[in-house]
Prior knowledge:
By secondary structure, the protein is mainly alpha-helical. It has helices spanning 6-23, 40-44, 47-52, 61-78, 95-99, 119-136, 154-160, 165-176, 188-193; strands at 31-33, 84-86, 107-113, 144-151. The chain has nine helices and four strands.
Amino acid sequence: FDSLTSNVTDMWLQRMAYIGARFGAFRSVLGWELINEPDTPYIYASKAIIQQYPELQEFPIKTFLPWIQQLARALMAADQGQHLLTTNFASGKYMEQLTMLPEMTFLASHDYQYQGGTTHALHCGSVGDVQNRLRHAGLASKPVFVSENGMVPAALEAQDDPTGRGMKGSQWCSVAAGTAAADFSWWWDSALIDSP
């Protein structure tokens, strides 16, 4: 994001204006997610990649936040329905900063467990952690959706939870923890296909 040219930003702003004008009247749209996990390349960059591209060492949050606000304002100006608006990160590291932006009207959180075990128990704890962090930061007034969850690698989910108990439990946990809606496993298709 540090190297975004004005031409690239202009293209994004035009895209936001188009989406808002084209789909803003649709009552079937819950909300807009501006960008999905922009920090992913920074999290998973190998040492070799970082040597070649040193800018991938740290996600440029100070540059990203004003940029995403610019996009949000362009979309909001064109959106007749004034839909909810968010973006999200692969890591929870920047969640509080993002949620403080007035343009972000809800929070979409992702929760992946990188180990075996009872998926739903791990997930319940981390959904509770999300809610507690927001409450402590004074940000609990915005609705939270855990829009993705699961175990990584995906094979663990089918192997450790062949009956889908964790997938069902995570839906219950997300609502019981106070999120705005039930979440769903990213790997739902393999969980259902691989189930007995």
